[in-house]
Amino acid sequence: MDDLSLTVMVLAGRLGESDDFGPIAPLLEDLARHGVEAQVLCVARGDAGTANFRVVELPSLGHRWRRAFAARRLRFDEGLRRPELIHVIHPSMGELGLAIAELWKIPYVQSVDDFVAPRGRLRLSRRWCRGLVARGHDLAEDLVVNLNVPRDFVTVIPPGIAIPDECTATTRRGAVPVIGTAGALEASAGCATFLNAARRVLDAGIDAEFVIAGQGDSEVDLRRRAGRLRIADRVTFAGRNVVGPRFWRVLDVFCQTSLSPTVGRTLAQAMAFGVPSIASDLEGLRTLVRHGETGVLVPPGDSGALAGAILDFLSDPERTLALGQSGREAIRRDYDPADEARLLAALYRRTLAGCEEQAPARLVPA
């Protein structure tokens, strides 16, 4: 453990195993080993397993129009100590982090978990924001090039991804193959490409089933498309909460069909479970998948290329399983939770050490 301890407030959203960002308790435990006392302010603690840590649950933070009021009513007492630094780890808490920092005059760092939409912006405090944490080098470069964030203001810290004890992928010889995708059901997710590819796979004479796990405004249109393609009886629409060990256990192939750059949180989960994966050849996803080594990349929106990759996977199960295993080992190597905690602790100390001499950042106006 580091000799000098410090207190950090972590601003989170909804905690629990089903959260996209993963269970937070292991991260808090690893930070404690580096002398960081993390206390969590969240919308809902769920099944986060944080009994040994200071966690304050404020459901009102889940309502955008009530967050500013909640920030003004926040008091530091025996339930929540005044921290030396704030870390906004969930994007939904960005405005709250800014408000708390301005009100209580506390420096903060903010994680950026995905690519900012075209013409989008980050709302940060000029005076109190001390840096951004990017999940990968592609995302960091996007912040520098497209949002004009100073390069030395961005620190790349890959998220820690827990590797399950056993690889869930199996050869399942004789079983009907199951091909799946997951995520928000919106146009940019490319689920229409997935359905078009499914039609091509079935036309090639393959007896297969397809699963789309997620929820969103596009679900009705996707169901209609499946009907028009005459594959509705081969496609299962499942809610987002099904994504977990049981979901990965039934998949033979996972497809990340995004049409725009993304860090691919669900893709990383699939790879951690050893599920052979196909992904769009885009910024962010290229960080996870090395073509032909840990998975396969295809042009975004190209249903023919996606179908071809699926057929290649199904025709050579031994090579496909080897790709899945290679992807799993890559996640184990590059996304070690212990490394995430070590790098975050170092960033916290570096940030606090430089607070006195650091000039206010010239970033997006608050």
> C-alpha Rg, in Å?
22 Å
Q: Biggest sheet, in brief?
A: 7 strands, parallel
The third-level CATH topology of the largest domain is Rossmann fold
Q: Briefly note the structural class of the backbone.
A: alpha/beta
Estimate the mean pLDDT confidence.
Answer: 87
Number of strands: 13
Percentage of helical residues?
A: 25-40%
Q: So what's the CATH class of the largest domain?
A: Alpha Beta
Determine the number of helices (DSSP H or I, runs of at least 4 residues): 12
Q: Please indicate the count of domains.
A: 2
Kindly report the spatial arrangement of strands forming the biggest sheet: 3-2-1-4-5-6-7
For the record, the CATH architecture of the largest domain stands as: 3-Layer(aba) Sandwich
Report the sheet-strand fraction.
15-25%
Give the distance, in angstroms, between the N- and C-terminal Cα atoms: 37 Å
Segments where pLDDT lies below 50 for 5+ residues?
17-21, 359-366
General shape: elongated
Assigned CATH superfamily of the largest domain: Glycogen Phosphorylase B
Order of SSEs, N→C? EHEEHEHEEHEEHEHEHEHEHEHHH
